[in-house]
Amino acid sequence: MLYKNAIKASYYRQPSRFKEAGGRGKQAGVALITVLLVFAIATLITSKIIIGKVLDVQRTTSMINRTQAYYYALAAEDLAILALQENIKQDIKDAPQGDHLDEFWAQGPMPFEIDNIGSVLVSIVDINRFYNINNLMQYNNKVSLYELERFRGLLVELDLDDALADNLRDWLDADDRDDGFSSDGDAYTNQEPGYLVANQRLTDVSELRLINGFDADVMAVLLPHISAIKTYGVLPINVNTATVYALATLQVASVGNKSGSNEGIGYSNALDIIGARKEPFTSMGDFSNRVSLPNLQASSQLNPGTKNQASSVSSLLGAYSHTSEYFEINIRANYAGSIAYLSTIVRQKGYGEEAKFIVLSRRETDNSYRFIEAASGS
Prior knowledge:
Blueprint: H1 2-13, H2 17-94, E1 110-114, E2 118-126, E3 131-132, H3 145-157, H4 164-172, H5 186-189, H6 216-222, E4 226-227, E5 237-238, H7 244-247, E6 251-252, E7 263-264, H8 266-276, H9 284-290, E8 320-321, E9 326-335, E10 338-349, E11 356-363, H10 368-376
Parallel strand pairs: 3-4, 5-8
Antiparallel strand pairs: 1-2, 2-9, 6-7, 9-10, 10-11
Helix pairs in contact: 3-4
């Protein structure tokens, strides 16, 4: 009995083999979890690095493709200018004639495929087909009362509020007097955020959105018939290409030629001109012979009191012509899915074989609405 108790006591004093085996198992389990955790963290870090590198490559590729698309657009611009120069040479070869919508440069958007990976869409728009709202500013930086009435007439024909003409006048002139409705000085500086009146010619037609009253609905109606070219004097309307509402701004001289008394020829007479130009006018004499509009005012007059200076600017005051001098080249270039837009204004300098086209402005602008207008023939 004593022997059995001694053996039993000795057994309980020794470490249990089962307990030792269980402790080692727990240690091995913790080590495995630690290894798995380290491996998971390393995997996450590696994945993040790989994803970052992939995004960097995609961004770099996108930038390279976008740059390539822009250079495609520049090349297309040169091609469009070459087309305009070739048009002048063709006119000289055939016979002196005007610029019209049947010429190849005016045939709407022209697509070109490049290397099976890129393409460009080019559209040339005649700026002289629109009414230039900068006509309102005379060479002496005063608002022309005659051109103000022309623009007012355009608003009336388009069923827009003709008081917008006075708001535009306040934006252009240098004084702080309100000719329109809350359209000068404090009317703009008190807004949130406030801004100053330009007191100068518009740089782009989009600037009209800054003027009170020229909201999105008004702009949608007005944009297809106006431009904003910085000229000294009046930009003539090309009777061969002008929109019907731009033609409606041409004025018939009234008795006495008093300021504000000259009325536009109206929509119906403008339609008559469009009907007559199915065979393009080759000269202004040809236009006068084929269009019956007595007393049609061929030039915009200066404000009263400035007639002694008329001779120095007489060549800048023509109200209409059968040729065009300003063109807008609209381009949409695609290279491997990257899109670049370009809208370039060019001006013809010189005549005949000596004619060249100089770039006046170049903007990376989405000009889709111009393509729509060209396609619809508006």
